[in-house]
Amino acid sequence: MPIADHAARRSQSREERWPPLPLDAWAPTRDTLHLWTQIAGKLKVELAPFQNELWHTALQLTARGLTTGALPTPNGALQADFDFVDHHFILTTGDGGRKTIPLYPRAVAHFYDETRACLEALGVPVQIDPMPQELPDPIPFDKDTTHDSYEPLPVVRWHRILLSSAHVMAEHRSWFRGKASPVHWYWGSFDLAATRHSGRPADPPPGGYIFRVAEDEENWAAGFWPGSGPVDYPAFYAYVYPQPDGYPEAAVEPDAAFWSAEMREFLLPYDAVRTADDPEAALTAFLQSSYVAGAELASWDRARLEFAEIPKPR
Fold this sequence. Notes:
Helices cover 30% and strands 21% of the residues. By secondary structure, the chain is α+β, with helices and mostly antiparallel strands. The chain is globular and about 55 Å long. The mean pLDDT is 95.
């Protein structure tokens, strides 16, 4: 694998690129923002054309936040953007329509009502399923007056971590020539993710539609999420599906990485990356070593799937 020279591109300090983000310091904001982003994500479910592995449902990173990208509607294009610099949720249409919803503390039900009113005012005929996904004990958006927090500073830090992580993940993806997802953000699980595939089919695990569609091929996946459930701290993760024999015992770098039997994946605490002498190199080592271990144990055809050298324009 060609190693990117991250140092040559740095101008921000390590603290700016990789700020602290302890989960307990922003958990109420994270929980509320998770639900707000699910509302935007469900616009993609309703409007975006299907893509394999459900890639059409993910949101994309921007320099300022997250976006649905341009979505087709019967009345033209619609785009929804979270701006975490000025803290707005912005709905725009291809004919010049624009509605801005400020991000400040208020209940999910109120945010949902505002979003529906803005869509109606823009002439966008779309109805979304108001039930949140991939959450325990979900409350319908229109009835959720429990989650009502929003603190801008941790959101800014979280978005900066997403950008820094995505840059490393995109570099790591660049030399894989097989089927691979973009680096994108899943609103159901609130994580940044990238996957690559061997080209061989797999029997999906039990668990309904999402697993049936997204895990129907051998794949390696990795990403970042700020913590939830049994992992009460931000972490990077990596796994291979189906899990090959011996994968939990594989030597994955750096030293802080470990196999979580409960999560059935390798974890690397975010703080181990943030405090490393070279955070980008530490994350690259985690991505590469977890991928190579899985690909070798599962007998992937790496000569076919990987560039020996990334093609350059002449």
